[in-house]
Write a structure and sequence with these properties.
With 278 residues, the chain is of the alpha/beta class. 41% of the residues lie in helices and 20% in strands. The chain contains 10 helices and 12 strands. The strands form 3 sheets. The chain has an 8-stranded mixed sheet, sandwiched between helices. A two-stranded antiparallel ribbon has the order 3-4. The protein has a two-stranded antiparallel sheet with strand order 10-11.
């Protein structure tokens, strides 16, 4: 009955993409926010961004929605909208202050994730982006289990070039394979920095073991792209603005656009394959 309820609620969601990383601080929420903005740039597409990072919900700030609250209607919780075609849901909207700590055990977290999937009235959605916390534990198992009632296109895994990050990301890839979650590909974030004055490139996080490219070759996973460091990304996120529209000519924006296009192509192809099977 529960699976049927979730399936019914998520029936109108065309594509679901999970954003994962075994490591914290690699820019996963930033990537989720910019992926949502990039997809919503096409006004014919309806995009939903679900933040299931229960203890560290940074999506409300990044999307310029701090202080907003969730409203309940007859059809469930209404998402908070950035644009007409971009809705957001996060535990951050349920806290009385952005500084409040969420001190919950696993079952309560899992209950909220289920509630987000079952009770949020997204309406017809082309892309549901799910921003997850770091790791391979409760929240990840719950979201994969609950979404299996509908369908998941796959996961985008975010890393930075250094071995300390790659070590945890390999675990995340292993997790995806164990729970049969398709991997769309890997994004290498903070990949080099081009000085705006002298134009020389520096490796802030040196890829001592070959970076994401080498890891993807070894594990037979697609590398979706490399996003260089740009200080403007952090500034835009702090202001709740889309970096893609604030710095359209930045090499990082061009990289993001290519990655977003590859994700869209993967999702469309996945959808066609599913229709053939059905």
């Amino acid at each position: 009955a529960e699976a049927a309820e979730l399936r019914e609620r998520l029936r109108a969601v065309r594509h679901t993409v999970l954003v994962l990383s075994g490591k914290g601080g690699v820019g996963k929420s930033t990537f989720s926010a910019l992926l949502a903005h990039g997809l919503a740039a096409d006004e014919t597409k309806q995009v939903a961004l679900l933040d299931i990072d229960i203890c560290g919900p940074s999506i409300p700030k990044m999307m310029g929605l701090e202080g907003e609250q969730v409203h309940q209607s007859g059809s469930g919780w209404s998402p908070v909208y950035v644009e007409e075609n971009l809705g957001v849901m996060s535990v951050g909207f349920l806290l009385s202050s952005p500084d409040d700590a969420v001190i919950w055990r696993g079952p309560k977290k899992n209950g909220l994730i289920k509630q987000f999937l079952r009770d949020v009235d997204w309406g017809e959605v082309d892309y549901l982006i799910v921003d997850t916390p770091p790791g391979t534990s409760d929240e990840h198992l719950s979201i994969v289990q609950y979404l299996s009632a509908s369908r998941i296109d796959g996961a985008v895994i975010v890393t930075t070039p250094q071995e300390v990050s790659l070590q945890d990301v390999r675990k995340e890839i292993n997790f995806c394979r164990k729970v049969k979650l398709p991997i769309i590909g890997v994004v290498e974030n903070m990949s080099g920095f081009v000085c705006p004055k002298c134009k020389n490139e520096s490796q802030i996080f040196p890829p001592t073991t070959g970076g994401a490219e080498k890891m993807c070759q070894n594990l037979n996973v697609s590398l979706l792209g490399k996003v260089p460091l740009d200080p403007q990304i952090g500034k835009s996120c702090d202001r709740g603005q889309s970096f893609l529209t604030e710095a359209p000519e930045s090499p990082a924006t061009l990289s993001y656009r290519n990655i977003i296009q590859r994700i869209q192509e993967y999702c469309e192809q996945h959808h066609l394959q599913e229709e053939k099977i059905m």
